[in-house]
What does this fold into?
Amino acid sequence: MTTTTKPRYTKKAPTRGGVRKGGGRPKGSTTKIRIEDLMEKIELQSGQTYAEILASNYVSAIQRNDWNGVRDYDKAFMNKMIAEKVDIDVKDSEDTVAAKSAAFAAALATLQKRSQDSDKS
It folds into this structure.
């Protein structure tokens, strides 16, 4: 007496990710945490601003010789400072514009001469 079993699934499930029906965050869900709300709650619980907490933790890492932690704080602070850098308006005077125009014309003439010389070769 031999019995055959039917496979449980007829289609093999993907094993490497991809879009799946019903996957992901449901539309209209309201449980998403906003950074502003999180920062406000941290400040209320600690009685300090988030910047004060960061500064305290940074000093603490230095005092306990946690150089990996200090490096991580340095990276975070530098990334923040670089992201908020101020753009500088450069206003050219007439002399500067004339000098730039002359330099551009000279560079263009040099390129054209080199192009002509390479065509002759």
User: Anything to note?
Assistant: The chain has four helices and no strands. The chain has a mean pLDDT of 81.
